[in-house]
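User: two proteins, same treatment. go.

Assistant:
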Amino acid sequence: MTAALTAPAATDRPAPAPRQLRWLYRLHRPALLTGTAIVLLTGAALLWLGGPLTDASAAAWKQYDACGFTPRCAYDQSSILLYKDVSTYTTTAVLALPFLVAVWAGGSLTGRELESGTIRLAWTQGVSPTRWLASRLAFPAVLTAAATGLLVWLHRLAWTAADGRVDTAKPWYDFPTFYANGTVPVSLALAGLAVGVLAGLLLRRSMAALATAAAALGALWTAVHTALPHLWPPVTEVSSLRDGPTGVGIAVGEGILTADGDRLAAPCHSGTMDGCRSTLADLDAVGFYRDFHPVGHYWPLQLVASGVLLLVAALVTLAAFRLLRRRTGQAAG
């Protein structure tokens, strides 16, 4: 299999960039057309969600709120349910896009070319292995960032239009909404592109690279999601035993404060109940605390998480070039 990556002698004249782009387009035209259709359909759905559907759902909620406890009060329930469904589907689509990029990059962009031997034809057309890999990363990265960024922007517009008007609109700290409204999907998609390319170079089998890229990107996102609350210093809100823990946002930790200033896990959360009140008294509790991220931490968390993902993407890209250079020898230079 190592011989499959041995670069044939290339012509002295390097292939111009437009020719490489045409070659890349011919090879991956079905994927490009499919991806364009996905972005256009999702974008159209987000425009519908943030416009007519939000207006209809907001009007329906006004009708519902005006009903009070009146039995058999008429309101447009279908608009409320439709808004909820479309919001869920479009959020899922935005968050799934990085995985589609990773799957394509591993299964088709590199894995299939190595498996079929198409790569050798490219190398005989005046394209060095390094330039071949650079073309597989640069132009797709621009398209990936543009497409993902567009959908994130439209998602945020749709969410902003419904915030405070539609009762079922997710709060900013709902994690799917949190991610889909910010820069994380763009960085995750670029990391998915790099991970997919590296998986294709390592495995040289389209299906194996496809599955590996998806699994690796899922593991990366899980790690970032787990670390997210700790990427920025949280704020602490202290409340009375009667009020229970307070503070709205992304929770980091909570518990009780004792008279000595110690922090303990909260055995219960309501000092107004007799059983809980006596338990808290036995622990010498004087109040509750909650460490959390308020809305003001939204962009710091987004940008730091995005920076981590971009750093991983850069390291994976470097690893891909080093791997190709090692397998092809001096021809990669």
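Protein 2:
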Amino acid sequence: MERMGNCTTIVYDCIPELDKPILIEGLPGVGNVGKIAADFLAEKLNAKRFATVYSDSFPPQVMLDSDCVIDMACNELYYVNDVNGKDIIFLLGEYQGTTPEGQYLICEDLMKDVFIRMDVSKMITLGGYGTGKMTDTPRVLGAVSDIDMKVDLQDHGVIFSPGEPAGGIVGASALLVGFGKIYGIPSVCLMGETSGYFVDHKSGIALLKVLESIIGIELDHAELDSKCQQIDELTAKVKEMEAEQQKTVDLGYIG
């Protein structure tokens, strides 16, 4: 067990041997888009946990399993070796810090005491871009720490749209890219377009496909397809309701 800074405690299961790994972060956020993509990718690649991250900035609660054994609120670090010649670290979990200060400190501690020590060569953070509108074909938008990264990412389908998102990026996805710029690690935040109204598996798959292209692999998404169909059905219903509401508004101007 190692105590880092004033707020973060990390418990190692093992110290993996990694060669300039890529970090992929997928914590909860808008539509849980980044979490869906990262969790799915880590599971399909049979990633193994090597550490658990605790913080006094996580919610003060424990969760019970089927045997009533507790687990504290935490994040977890996983690794996988040699995915198309690349080692990968995943930062996964059910929580982010409950305060801006807490989020900053957690990311700073992880950056200095884990990612830099493990010689991370690139960081890819994942999130959702909430538009408040239903969309049939979610885009994947990007923000980078270094302008030289843009051309290659565009070849993988990432869209760079100045002014989107208008309010900037928040949370771990933003902070890690920011620290990447400070410490000279090429970093990108990939954001799947989503209404933000619900857990959006369709946007998660759009994000996943870009990740697969970047890594150079292809996965079977069959188990997510049925959930995407549910999203399509929900989108159609919402659009129908919006159309009916618009008709009502238009009729109000007659007479």
